[in-house]
Fold this protein.
Amino acid sequence: MGALDLEKMEPYDLATTVLPGMGREEQLEFLASLPPGRAAETLEHLRPDQQYWLLHHLPEDRGREVLNEMSSDAAVDLLLSLHPRQRSQLLEWIAPQYQEELRRLMAYPENSAGGLATVDYIAVREYWTAGEAIEHVRKVGREAELVYYLYVLDAQGHLVGVASLREVLLADPRTPLGELMKREVISVPAQADQEEVGRILSRYDLLALPVVDDAGRMIGIVTVDDILDVMEQEATEDVQRLGGVQPVAEPYMEASLGVLFRKRVGWLMALYVAEALTGTVMRHYESFISQVVALAFFVPLLIGTGGNAGSQASSLIIRALAVGEVTPAHVLRVIWRESRLGLALGLSMGAAGVLRALLLGTAGSIALTVGLAQVAIVLWASLAGALLPLLGKKIGVDPAVFSTPLIATATDALGLIIYFEIARLVLGL
Amino acid sequence: MGALDLEKMEPYDLATTVLPGMGREEQLEFLASLPPGRAAETLEHLRPDQQYWLLHHLPEDRGREVLNEMSSDAAVDLLLSLHPRQRSQLLEWIAPQYQEELRRLMAYPENSAGGLATVDYIAVREYWTAGEAIEHVRKVGREAELVYYLYVLDAQGHLVGVASLREVLLADPRTPLGELMKREVISVPAQADQEEVGRILSRYDLLALPVVDDAGRMIGIVTVDDILDVMEQEATEDVQRLGGVQPVAEPYMEASLGVLFRKRVGWLMALYVAEALTGTVMRHYESFISQVVALAFFVPLLIGTGGNAGSQASSLIIRALAVGEVTPAHVLRVIWRESRLGLALGLSMGAAGVLRALLLGTAGSIALTVGLAQVAIVLWASLAGALLPLLGKKIGVDPAVFSTPLIATATDALGLIIYFEIARLVLGL
């Protein structure tokens, strides 16, 4: 590939297709040959350990330049992932005032608005004219992460308004920003969760959201492209949690088997311990099974269907909680909805259960037992599936932890008790 | 709430908090009182049936104005959701040239780049200077969905370059766009799937992505805020599919019980039919259970753990497929990884199984049976959980359909056969 092609390539492609094909020395040479801003953008698409290795092994003045060109949110992510000794070394490379800003951002949790914010936004004053503001954008625009919103700050750094570059461009150049700006700025506190940030960006169709501290002073902005990355990451974690896996940071094909084993065996064991209760229940009803072996035939079907019904309810509620459609305050209404739904679904499945039992040639009384048990188990599983995530949310546990495997496991033991107790009543065991 | 407050409110808030509190007549009066652009933005946050009702009942000239102010992607969504008669009525309100553009966009599938595209972008010519381009933005900027990218088209409408407003502002006003623009434009074909569009936007940190037809002519742009909405919608559908629910379009608390019932009962029944196979398997081994009732104690534990292991593997692979980390071409490597992982997990769970059996006071030979069966079942479930979504992808079925409930159900029957066959060998039944 010629030098010309490389010059035109996107930083993402340089990081994901060009660099991986090079040896380490070659990577260093290549990065040193790029303009520092482009080298910084390329680095931002690598893993933190790779970023550090490259910065550390570049000629020091070069490494400094590249680090200072990185956007502040990327620099914060890198610094936070380093060993404290490496971190202080890199921090020394950064100009004192910028260093202070980075230290402030580093204090916010990684998943918060503050942790995602970049300080490379455009700040303007209320008394500037539109023409002056455009001059300012021309001057500082190259450093900024996003030039399309001009944030109006007062002398103490409080966010008092926002003007879009579009409005400023469209206006008469002599108009003061105070007349153009919107005073009702949509902003988030630094502690806001990243999902909340994404929701607000999407709701109000914004390209960036300003982040303020408790006193209303501007800390930085979160841009929509960072939120896209965050949403993809969150979706991955949710799907993995729903499958009963602790979130795995690396791509599946790159994660070591040891990591994948550890992320899976913990939950598998925890669920096993819970599921082991079913053995105790079964043994408790040993005499029932000895007397009517046919009862055992329906155990997998009954509890499997219960698990499926619970998983349906939990997936609906987990997602509704995630997008804010349902809150723990809705608990009574959720109970009322799932009671009716669970009963309707239970009756359908119960009818199927009776049919299945008769088809297997079992006695009518056993078929009746299976049918009644199926109604009760589906009802119970639907309620448990809906309520456990709500409970989790209430007590501050990620609702996605109440994954399908957990719901299935949690409903199995009681499902069996329901089954055998109905058998006792119907069959007179 | 005073008129002043309403004037400052965001369209989203008008649509979600102000309008729902009004009667229909009041809604019409309120919309008629808004500037048409603001009324259009507010409408875009309502459901299509509500949009149509309001447009239809506004004074006709007012309705026309508002409809023509809607962004083209929102107008397309609305038109597509209407009855053909209503659709032609609304189309008549639209200026002929714009009408033609809308008809072209309506031909693309809803989930494709073409279906999401808006035609309200800024088109410029290569020979214009930076200064002329800024003048153009000033003139047409108010109509555009996004003014921050200037798309350079040739006389036939082919997309030949893109310049960011930032670059154009920073440049000398006399520079021709041909010198400022990037000729390697990242674009997508109109048929591209919306997930692909999201991936490209996020990868290259873009605010909008141009959509071109097969001949490279520009059709429109997809903006990042539309993709945020799409990603949220897709995440909801994935979570619901993973839980074994057909995607529900309405929010959980608003969906009717009838809809929720239908979205759930279909899968539940389908899984039931599959799960019913377990009854046949159990009956086939009836004599084993009669001879050694203790064998039945471990059935829920063994197949439950198998289901959990399968669900872990499937959630990892489903997500890796969704983000493009794994493709069906990786099938052999996935088999090799999951064989080793499944074996390691199986051995761990098998050891736990032996322990559990001994704790329940069962004979050593039964404990051995349970342990061996657990190893084999976990191995088999891990492989099935990983391979079924890959197979789905290969044959064009959404991998998320291979949900946890489906994997659990699919692995139960063979899991039981494995268990009883091991029992035959070990116990000599």
Summary: Residues 122-228 of chain A form a domain with the CBS-domain fold (CATH 3.10.580.10).
